[in-house]
């Protein structure tokens, strides 16, 4: 008998690996909320949604992107690039663990209309019950555009609990002590079955386990973009905790992956107080990878993240994640700082 969610795990690895092959183009469009989106974001979501539609036709999908701007597009040529890129990825040769039944491999081309419909299958509003996937086709788009870290993120949830999480990080060194060495990592977790790092090429699985708390090496992993998380709140927490190592600034859920493998002590995402609500696709896969590596992920009140509220995590109390034996200590200091800072409590 196979382990629970073996099929979903195998699928998610295959889909994320394939999506990682096409996130190399950076032509952009600015979305309604002023954030950038690239042809890579659209093509990766189209690819994964087409594969999902073949593999698990009844499952619902919460995807970051939608095709409204592409349908409205006049003469920008982006749509044609997306069709080209997505089809290149769809029709690529089958590798180990890939199945033609997933709508991939030679001869699997789709039309522009089919690809836009596929992108829009990610429009599920989310909820508390049933099977659902959440996709961030490129997380850390700003990092991607700077040639830095980004991640292709796919998570599978049942009744609002993440059961499978996969992150593909094409620019992440396999070993942080060799920053100029081989790059391209895949992180995979299944609830109750642990987490692993695999090379993007598919080789060398390493089980992940976070090292115990050590005050002398403890530090924070935080956003590069000051608009995404309050770096000044982190500074206050850091000095109250007596942390001496500087924070590691990195875009995307690669932060969760680095935490899971012991590169950094805590993932810290304190709200900037502007009423933003965190999106489920920005945390689902990464949070499971951290939990399965021996960490705890919560908001700044110590409550678990709730993936059953819809497309967002609801009112924003931030996200803090760290190894089990450091969580209570960190939470105490976080609460000391947030009690003194009204912006953290502002209602979204
Ligand atoms: N004001 C805000 N506060 C928190 N997160 C925000 C934000 N505006 C955008 N984001 C999210 O921050 C994500 C990137 O996180 P990070 O800073 O850790 O790299 C973005 O994902 P995308 O790049 O997928 O759009 C976006 O969803
Ligand atoms: Mg985005
Ligand atoms: Mg994102
Ligand atoms: Mg994204």
Q: Could you characterize what this model shows?
A:
With 348 residues, the chain is an alpha+beta fold. The chain has two domains: 6-207, Fructose-1,6-Bisphosphatase, subunit A, domain 1 (Fructose-1,6-Bisphosphatase, Chain A, domain 1), CATH 3.30.540; 220-345, 3-Layer(aba) Sandwich (D-Maltodextrin-Binding Protein, domain 2). Helix content is 31%, strand content 21%. The protein is built from ten helices and 14 strands. It has helices at 6-21, 39-55, 68-72, 78-91, 112-120, 141-145, 231-241, 254-260, 284-291, 324-339, and strands at residues 28-30, 36-38, 60-63, 131-139, 151-158, 161-173, 183-190, 194-199, 206-207, 220-222, 248-249, 266-269, 295-298, 319-323. Helix 7 (231-241) packs across helix 10. It is globular and about 60 Å long. The model has no long low-confidence stretch (mean pLDDT 94). Bound molecules: adenosine-3'-5'-diphosphate and magnesium ion (3 copies). The site of one magnesium ion has 3 residues, from strand 4. This is 3'(2'),5'-bisphosphate nucleotidase. Its EC number is 3.1.3.7. InterPro entries: DPNP, Inositol_monoP_metal-BS, Inositol_monoP_superfamily, Inositol_monophosphatase-like, Inositol_monophosphatase_CS.
Number of strands: 14
Poorly predicted runs are: none
Structural class, from secondary structure content?
alpha+beta
The CATH class name of the largest domain reads Alpha Beta
Beta-strand residue fraction:
15-25%
Strand line-up of the largest beta sheet = 3-4-5-6-7-8-9
Distance between the termini: 47 Å
Query: CATH homologous superfamily of the largest domain - what is it?
Result: Fructose-1,6-Bisphosphatase, subunit A, domain 1
Gyration radius, rounded: 19 Å
**What is the element string, with H for helices and E for strands?**
HEEHEHHHEHEEEEEEHEHEHEEH
The count of domains is 2
CATH topology of the largest domain: Fructose-1,6-Bisphosphatase, Chain A, domain 1
Helicity level:
25-40%
Enzyme class: hydrolase
EC number: 3.1.3.7
Organism: Gymnopus androsaceus JB14
Protein name: 3'(2'),5'-bisphosphate nucleotidase
